[in-house]
Amino acid sequence: xxxxxxxxxxxxxxxxxxxxxxxxxxxxxxxxxxxxxxxxxxxxxxxxxxxxxxxxxxxxxxxxxxxxxxxxxxxxxxxxxxxxxxxxxxxxxxxxxxxxxxxxxxxxxxxxxxxxxxxxxxx
Length: 123
Fold this sequence. Notes:
This protein is mainly α. The chain folds into two domains: 6-70, Arc Repressor Mutant, subunit A (Orthogonal Bundle), CATH 1.10.10; 73-120, Iron dependent repressor, metal binding and dimerisation domain (Diphtheria Toxin Repressor, domain 2). It contains six helices and two strands; from the N terminus they run αααββααα. It has a two-stranded antiparallel ribbon with strand order 1-2. Strand 1 (54-56) and strand 2 (61-63) form a beta hairpin. The longest helix has 23 residues, at 65-87. It is elongated and about 45 Å long.
């Protein structure tokens, strides 16, 4: 299932990254990382629970298997696009910022071409 909401994708991606850094992810962690209010996080959490992407025990936020897969795909798009932009000469911060925008709108065909280009480069 594709989320048609950039904000939800951003929340999932950030919850994934926080879950890699912290034993438990809390709403306040998400709010701080994303620079948003706790009520905004609460609203997003509600939508993500209803969509089956996360669960919560009241205190902690957990990605479901479906949520983890979706968040991982969003993060992969982000990383590949960032690397692609760097390879074609876009500087660090600009590449990162542009990738944050592009990861939500790039077509599967364009992403596949970017990924093939990045993967073909010597490491």
